[in-house]
Amino acid sequence: MGYSAENAIKTKFDHAYNMTSPVEYLKEMRSLDYQIPENSKTILNFLIEEKKQCTGKDVIKILDIGCSYGILSALIKFNLDLEVLYNKYNQKGMDKGRLDDGWFRNLPCRKDVEFHGIDTSANAIEYSISSGFIESGLAVNLEMEETVQSGKLPDDVDIIVSTGCIGYITEITLGKLAEHYKLEKPWIASFVLQIFDFEPIGDALRRYNYNSVYLDQRKFRQRKFKNQNEKTSVTQILSKRAETASEKERFLLEEFMCADFYLSQPSGEAKSNVFSVFT
Ligand SMILES: C[S@@+](CC[C@H](N)C(=O)[O-])C[C@H]1O[C@@H](n2cnc3c(N)ncnc32)[C@H](O)[C@@H]1O
After folding, report:
1. 78, 164, 188, 250: which is deepest, by most CB within 10 A?
2. Considering only CA atoms, which residue is closest to atom 21 of ligand 1?
3. Contact present, 142 and 171 (Cβ < 8 Å)
4. Which of helix, strand or coil describes residue 265?
5. Which atom of ligand 1 is nearest the CA belonging to 144?
């Protein structure tokens, strides 16, 4: 299946994904007011607390798919706002993303979460580990004929999350992770740009006995459109996808591309109360 038509109309940022530092990536993302990692924090923090309650664990292990330079984990572990990171990496002397000014090391770091990451970018994974943003990581493309290598990631994780990555990854990656973690059955929290149809992923996860629901009261700003062409093309895709009046309303475009939130949990397990967060 894949999302080739949708990806064809999206602006490409590949040049910024595989650098030795996040400076260029953050500069480019900031110019488009990229904000999905920030906007996902409330939900992710809520899921962390719920997982602690359900499992009795003190430390929740999170696998971030398409973790890039570890931005989401930095926001959560150091309790930062994205604006603070944008400013930090925009400072003079951060042009190589050097962390040796001790700023990160001196920040209070949460002890109740561990982050692990997957990304196709070996440089981004290396940076995320060396900066202490993630505990372990794997540079791999599970969309291709590659598999999850045991030993490179924890044997068990509690939550799998993705922001800004569905589209690059499909049901193939999520199916392989569901297979790899079929005993632990982590919750899967997906922030999905509205142009991408989640159904193939939901179907793949159902084969592993997952039930997926989406938060219909809320959409999440991801980033501004790069230009009018992108906005026009996205509008065309969304108007084809919207079947009902409420979908038309949800897909209504402002100046931002927006994401929906989907939560996939094992059928039979008590449903998370995440949907109470915004009601
Ligand atoms: C828009 S960035 C999002 C980064 C991060 N999740 C965030 O929200 O800040 C997309 C990321 O997906 C990664 N990516 C692209 N294709 C991938 C794949 N097949 N598997 C894993 N990661 C992939 C890119 O290298 C990039 O780091």
Report:
1. 188
2. 119
3. no
4. strand
5. 19
> Cβ(17) to ligand 1 under 6 A?
yes
For ligand 1, atom 4, which residue shows the shortest CA distance?
68
Topology of the domain covering 4-276: Rossmann fold (3.40.50)
- Read off φ and ψ for residue 220, nearest 5 degrees: -120, 125
- Proportion of the chain above pLDDT 70, given as a percent: 97
Q: Distance, CA 93 to ligand 1 centroid (Å)? A: 26
Residues of the chain where predicted confidence (pLDDT) is lower than 70: 1, 95-101
CA distance 137 to 153: 6
**268 C-alpha vs ligand 1 centroid, how far in Å?**
31
Atom 27 of ligand 1, residue of closest alpha carbon: 68
Amino acid at position 149, single letter: Q
Could you list the beta-strand ranges (E) of 18-135.
60-65, 113-119
